Amino acid sequence: METKHPLAIWRKSQAKPLSQYDLGPLIGVSRWMVNAIETGRRQPSRDLIAAISKLTDGKVGFDQFVPEEDRSKESERAA
Fold first, then answer.
1. Closest Cα partner for 34 from 24, 44, 43, 26?
2. What does R_g of the chain's alpha carbons equal in angstroms?
3. Which end of the chain has a smaller Cβ tally under 10 Å, C or N?
């Protein structure tokens, strides 16, 4: 069974579902990049994660893109 990426789930759950082509310009990337993010071939930059989080009202954000062990390292660096 294929697990859908949280961004794909959010995109398809809208009142008017968004295609990857529709979503790209809303976050400043191409349809190809949306596909690459959703399939795990590319990791978005922090700025792109922020744009996605803003668009989705925080439903898809940092936690969905950065593994928990990396989040722990970030917290240690900030301290």
1. 24
2. 13
3. N
Report the 3 state secondary structure along the chain. CCCCCHHHHHHHCCCCCCCHHHHHHHHCCCHHHHHHHHCCCCCCCHHHHHHHHHHCCCCCCHHHHCCHHHHHHHHHHHC
Is there a contact between 59 and 68 (Cβ–Cβ < 8 Å)? Answer: no
Cβ-contact 35, 20 below 8 angstroms:
yes
